[in-house]
Structure formats: structure tokens, C-alpha cells
UniProtKB/TrEMBL annotation, chains A, B:
One of its GO terms (cellular component) is cytosol. This is Iron-containing alcohol dehydrogenase. It comes from the Bacteria. Gene3D superfamilies: 3.40.50.1970, Dehydroquinate synthase-like - alpha domain. It comes from Alicyclobacillus acidoterrestris (strain ATCC 49025 / DSM 3922 / CIP 106132 / NCIMB 13137 / GD3B). Pfam families: ADH_Fe_C (PF25137), Fe-ADH (PF00465). Residues 9-178 form the Alcohol dehydrogenase iron-type/glycerol dehydrogenase GldA domain.
Amino acid sequence: MDAFRFQNPTALYYGKGQIEAHLAEEVLKYGKRVLVVYGGGSIKRNGLYDKVMNILHGAGVTTFELSGVEPNPRLTTVHKGVDICRTEHVDLILAVGGGSVLDCSKAIAMGVKYDGDVWEIYARKGQATGALPLGTILTLAATGSEMNAGGVITNWETKEKLGGGSPYTFPKFSFCDPENTYTVPRDQTVYGACDMLAHCFEHYFHKTEHTELQQHLIEGVIKTIVHNTKAALDSPNDYHARETLMYCSTMALNGMINMGLRGDWACHAMEHEVSAIYDIPHGGGLAIIFPHWMEYVKSENPSRFASLATEAFGVNPEGKSTDELADIAIAKVREYYKEIGAPQRLADYDIGDENLETMAAQAVRFGEIGQFKKLGKDDVYNILKAAL
Amino acid sequence: MDAFRFQNPTALYYGKGQIEAHLAEEVLKYGKRVLVVYGGGSIKRNGLYDKVMNILHGAGVTTFELSGVEPNPRLTTVHKGVDICRTEHVDLILAVGGGSVLDCSKAIAMGVKYDGDVWEIYARKGQATGALPLGTILTLAATGSEMNAGGVITNWETKEKLGGGSPYTFPKFSFCDPENTYTVPRDQTVYGACDMLAHCFEHYFHKTEHTELQQHLIEGVIKTIVHNTKAALDSPNDYHARETLMYCSTMALNGMINMGLRGDWACHAMEHEVSAIYDIPHGGGLAIIFPHWMEYVKSENPSRFASLATEAFGVNPEGKSTDELADIAIAKVREYYKEIGAPQRLADYDIGDENLETMAAQAVRFGEIGQFKKLGKDDVYNILKAAL
């Protein structure tokens, strides 16, 4: 293990009925002027918008709204939110949606307190100096944004998609009611599962030694995701499958299963370059890239892949070599993606080789990426080419 | 899963060098008048006392001291600490020691802000109204007190040992340097391992349904404890074994592996009655009681025990019935205790049947105990009798 500091102060409310029971009391801790941020309007169709607004107005809260947050949330939308918060003297931002809405809200929260364009924080040219309090109501099991301080923003002017955050942007509270994910479309459920699984993989592949407990915790999350995705797809209103996936998504990226290790994160960096140009779903991009990355790096430490096979996918190791088990692990990952209907190749999104050079160059513009294996521009090019 | 609220705001510093690098900055967030609480003086022998005092005094901090905290910390000691804090206008309590020192410090922290005797909070006759800020420097991997809000205090006047806590008593920060556990005596290392394993068992056995991820997380902690105890006993200065055990102890009781389920906790309740009379080490008492409790309750849900065998102890299930696997699980638990030299029977502490009735009656004085199986007075009597 590396020496580490860990702190995650978010108050997490899980399960049905929690919004009705506790939302008003949590909001009123921070004030009575609230900016409600949401996406394309699904929360209006499924009744969540009305429920939340009734609770807020019933508690004497004045609400402002920022709607239409994009799946890959854009800097221009963040700027709109910052303007509203400043003009209306907002006390609290309440994000109602999936990871994109939450990430956008974190950027707004930092932007309000930042003297300059908040993009500087994402472009590593500035540091957050504070943030408005943020609360969230989650509607999609995927990014873990409900219990961490990070987020990803896309700048369409510069064609950059970058992650950023600060100790200030942990949500003060997050409400995770699995029933709010019943109406998530099938493809979004798939992308969400791909995203949370990708977070586990990013933690699982590293070079930090003596991380036995972390390894087992991550394996636990991986096998639970794999075991529950199909049930949620087959029966969208299966409370327990939805609840389990939602809980996996939170645990996969709240810092609790990966303390003291430096995860890989190369696949996320590569995916960001693909969606910065093609605006594809993040989870879909990750599902495409991961198996190819795995093939490319497995010789670095085949026994790590063998553990993935035996501990997370339950493969009986008897009579199999480490290399064979490593290959089986990758096959299992591919099989899972296929079974749930995740995309397999960049071609599935009509992406050809026209921007490979640009994407490879951009992915490494802050230096080599990855921890399990350090990747330079050529490596990224090769992996993305294999994924065409 | 049950609906739940989870929040754990403690800032955790793990690894060697963290005290030197960050203790002063953390302490100074809360003030310059600090009560340092510690136990029997082992921190003076191993140099930790001098290190901490040098850092505090170098930062301009005025220190007060409460030493001699007992292994089962006593209410009278808590009262002394409360008096010092009030008289000296202490800003922060810094607990340097194992779970007993930390638990005592939590009681002091609540006591300072409580209008009445702090024992009322433990006796369920009052609720905490606040607490002085508390920081900890851990010297024993065992109780998890470094990252939770609870603690156990013994009232020798009434012969009661009761747990209590409040949202105010999460440590603000905790420093966990595995090197500070090198000099822990062998028996204390054993008791610590028994205690953290017991916490896992308390979480593992319950009646809450649909807790697949929690199950796997708990199994991960159990197998890591079992795998590392012997290394720490064989080579007390094995940094990685010490580090892994310390990390297991924190994760076993910081709330992260058991969200949304109601653990059993009957064995803890029974053990408290034994040590309230006989003042035996908590971990030793738990190691004695658990196998007998397991035998007594296994018919409630043998498949839970079978999972313990296959998932945590790596037993190959082929050709074995659920009942056989359940028996193997209990045998594995006994084998582990035996291998590390934990006590096996109450007789090992010269405890006979003289107080069985009293202990059984006291254990259920707030009502039946346990979740996996509800236990009344007769059940407790039977289990303790079997453990003689």
C-alpha cells in the first residue's frame, strides 16, 4: 500500500422512501434558494420532478432551474449555471439525474467560487478555491459521482473532455432510490453497468504492492455487477437488482475499495478522447476499449488477470496455466459485454481511423498514461486501432 | 437491503511518515490546548510519546495528559478526563493508543458537552448533545474505533459494560502507522485479530435479504485477516502484514462493508457481560464465545455458514452438502483461533459457572439480543455454559 489520506464526508441516503422522509431537512441545512439542475426531461415524465419540487416548495424553498444538461456535459452549460447561481444568490445546488447532471453541477459549484473561468481547473491551470454546497438525487447507476468529488466536463470549443474536482465538491448529501432507475432505458442501464465495471478494472490493475484486501473488495464489486446486470435488464422494475447495481456503482468509485493504491485509468483517458470528438456514451466507449487494452497489457502481469478469472469470475483454476487463466479472464469480460448488449467495436458508432492520430496525441498530452503499464502515444494508437 | 443513511467524515491518514508530515496541521485546525490520552505507558517505551509531544510542542500546542486508561476503560477514568477538559478549556482530545484509549476519549469528548453524567448516554437514559473534537493515533489493530463513532465503557460500580456513541464522536482525524504496532505484545495482536474478525462475523450473520455485495466485501475482509495474522505473529516487524491487519481492522468496523443490513451483535453483548464481571480481554472473550454461538444458531440458516466456508475459507464445495459445509466453516473458525493461540474456553480465564445466571440475565436486560437468531436469557445461558 502507498501511504494515503482518505476522507469522504458525503451523507448517503439509500432506498425507497428516503427522499420523502429526509430531503427537506437536508436541503434546509444549507438555505432556501436552490438551483435544481437536470437533464433532458426524463424526470418530468417519470414524476420525480414533481415529487422533488413539491417537497422543496412545501418546505418554503425558492427554486431556480437549469435543464437540458447533455450526456457529456458541456462547459457552456456550466457557465449558464454559474450565472444563475451568482445572479440569484443560490444557497444550494440540487442535481437530479445521472452522472452527467451531477458532474455538471460540481463544475457549477466550483465555478461560482472561482475567480476566472472554471475550465482552468479542468485544464490544470488553476485550483478550486471553494464550492457552493451540492446535493444530489441519483437517477442512474453508473458513475459513482453521487459519492465522490470528481467530474468530467467537455469543452466543445477546444474538443477537450477532462476530469477534475476538489475536496470541496463532495456532495453534502445524495439520495439513491433504486425506484428512480426503473425507467432508465435499456441502453443506459447497459452503459451504466459498463461504467461501474470499468471503475473496478481501473482500480484492479496497478503496480502497487501488498493490496490484498483492496483486491478482494474490488473482486466483490465486480462479481456483484456481473451477477446483477442481466436481472436489471430483463426486469427493469426488479427492485433488488436495481438496488444492487446502484450500490455497486456508488462503491465502485467512492474511494472505499481502492485506498492506498494508484489505479490505472488509461482506458478512461483514451475513452475521453474518443467521446471528445464523437460524443459517444462514456460507458459504451469503455466497453469497447477495455478488452483491447487488456490484450495489449496482459503480459505485464498475467497473474493479475488470472486472479480476475478465478476470484471475480469464479473460474476453476485446476489444470490451467496462468497465461491460460489470463486469456479466460479477458474472454469472460468480452462475454459479459456481449451478453448485456454493449458495443464491441468503434465501428458500432461509425468511428473509423480518421482521427486516430489526433486522439492518440491528445490522450498523452499531459504525459504517459496508465499505471499497470505506462502508455505513450504509439501504445494508445495501437489500442484504438485494434478497437476499430 | 434496508434503507439506510451512511456518513463517515473521519479523515484517515495511513502509512509510515504520516504523523510527522500531517499531525501538526490537523491538530492546529482545532486549537492549541490539547488533552493527550493514553494507556499504560507502552507509548513511552517505544518512543511514540516523545515523537508526538515534540510535534505538538513544536507547533506551539499546550498539552495536558490523562494516562493509565485501562484495557476495559472505566467510567471513573472518563470522569477524570472530563474534569481536565473543563478546567483547562481543552480544544481537542488526542487519543494515542488502542481501542480502549480511543473509546475512553470518545466518552470524555461527549461528557464535556453533556449536562449530567456521561454514563447516562451509555445506559440509554440520555443522548449526546455534542462532543469536543477528537483526533487519534492508533497503536493496535483491533477495534476500528479510529474510524467510527462508537465505544465501550465499563462502570465498575454497577458492573456494567456498555457501548455507546453519537454522530459527534467520529474522530476528526486518525493516524494509522503500522510501525506503531510493531511492539504490540503477541497476545494483544491475537486479541486484536479476534476482535476484527468478530466484527466481520457480526456483520455476516443477519436476516436482511439482498445483501450480495456486502456479503462479498465482508468475505474479503475475513479472508485477508485469516491470511495475515500468522505473518504478523511470526514476524512482528513485518510492515506489510501489520499494515494489512491494521487496514482490515479499520474496514471491519467503519460502516463501509455493512451498509443497509442489521448485523447480529449477540456475541458482543454476551462478551460484554463476561468482561464486565471478569475483566478479561475483549478479543479473547469473543474468540471463546463465537464458535459456541455458531453451533447454537447454525440451523437457522446453514447455507450462510456454507458460504463462509466456500467464499471466505476457500473450501471446495464439490461433493459436500450444505450442512457439511456449515460444519466445516465452524471447524475452520476454531482452527484459526487455535492456530494463532487464542483462548478456547472460559476456563482458560478461570471462569466457572458461578455467574452464568447473572450474565445471562444482564445480557438481555434491554430485550432479546441477536438478529440472525433472537436470543433470550436461556439461550445466552446455554451458549455460555457450552463455552465453559
